Amino acid sequence: MKETEKFKLGESLPLAQVLDGLPYNSDGLIPAVSQQFDTGEVLMMAWMNRVALEETLQRNRVCYWSRSRQKLWRKGESSGQIQILKEMSFDCDGDTILLKVDQTGPACHTGRRSCFYNVVRGDRVEVASEALIDPEQLYGK
Amino acid sequence: MKETEKFKLGESLPLAQVLDGLPYNSDGLIPAVSQQFDTGEVLMMAWMNRVALEETLQRNRVCYWSRSRQKLWRKGESSGQIQILKEMSFDCDGDTILLKVDQTGPACHTGRRSCFYNVVRGDRVEVASEALIDPEQLYGK
């Protein structure tokens, strides 16, 4: 993405050229942060590869790469809690993706709205939110 | 952080225990996303090690680990554009940090407020913001 550093407002590059040139790590992945588009709440961080990126842009539904399962992870495919893509952006060096999304229900596998519920308060780390839905119900166990 | 998954609202762990148990990568690092605390704007992503985490919490000024320079990076030490820490949280598996901060001026080395200025629009990636300050002025070149 270095070539856009000195671009003026509204100057652009072809999407395909940008996707080709991203600094994927040795596993072909880039971290993606998702944020609820209207409230600004940061929901989660996960990973995308080139295929996940393209599918997400084509369908406007967020698809990650699951490192634990080593396969495409269509967010919500088992929980029903999908992310509709509102806007995708890349940072100055192209090594992080920001996804503005409309998240249905909880983003977190624990049933909480956001994964960032462990908050530092003095010399303790405190759980700052409760599950919206019981995770056992979320995954139909 | 797995042990807090089933914690109720307000239950907590000692901070030192959490910092000891974070899943640092093979370089001892964890990604940290920073967000302007009042507007919700996502500013940048960088990396922290254990020392950077502790310094940030002690001083309430954000300190990262610079992978390119291989040293502590006290955000703003050369540009003057500091980040005051408002809140730090960890995600469900502890492998990402969210920093709510009060960012002075631009967070990005290009002089833009946020690093996420390369926005996908159709089949183009368009620069969606301008520098607040000329980067040559920012770094006194």
Short structural summary:
Chain A is α+β, with helices and mostly antiparallel strands and 141 residues long. Chain A has 3 helices and 9 strands.
Can you tell me about this structure?
Two copies of one chain form a homodimer. Chain A is α+β, with helices and mostly antiparallel strands and 141 residues long. In chain A, 15% of the residues lie in helices and 34% in strands. Chain A contains three helices and nine strands. In chain A, strands 3-2-7-6 form a four-stranded mixed sheet, covered by helices on one side. The radius of gyration of chain A is 16 Å and the shape is globular. Chain A starts with 11 loop residues before the first strand and ends with a helix. At the A-B interface, strand 1, helix 1, strand 2, strand 3 and strand 6 of A face strand 1, helix 1, strand 2, strand 3 and strand 6 of B. Strand 6 of chain A pairs antiparallel with strand 8 of chain B.
SSE diagram, text form:
Two copies of one chain form a homodimer.
Chain A: E1 12-14, H1 15-21, E2 30-36, E3 42-48, H2 50-59, E4 63-66, E5 71-74, E6 83-90, E7 97-103, E8 118-121, E9 124-127, H3 135-138
Parallel strand pairs in A: 2-7
Antiparallel strand pairs in A: 2-3, 4-5, 6-7, 8-9
Low-confidence spans of chain A: pLDDT under 50, at least 5 residues? none
Q: Report the average pLDDT across residues of chain A.
A: 95
Rg calculated over all Cα atoms of chain A: 16 Å
Strand order in the largest sheet of chain A? 3-2-7-6
Distance between the termini of chain A: 44 Å
Q: What would the principal axes of the Cα set say about the shape of chain A?
A: globular
| Most extensive interface | A-B, 56 and 56 residues
Instruction: Provide the β-strand percentage band of chain A.
Output: 25-35%
Number of distinct beta strands of chain A: 9
How many helical stretches of chain A? 3
* Largest pleated sheet of chain A: 4 strands, mixed
Helix content of chain A: 10-25%
- Structural class computed from helices and strand pairing of chain A: alpha+beta
Reading the helices and strands of chain A in chain order gives: EHEEHEEEEEEH
Which quaternary structure do these chains form?
homodimer
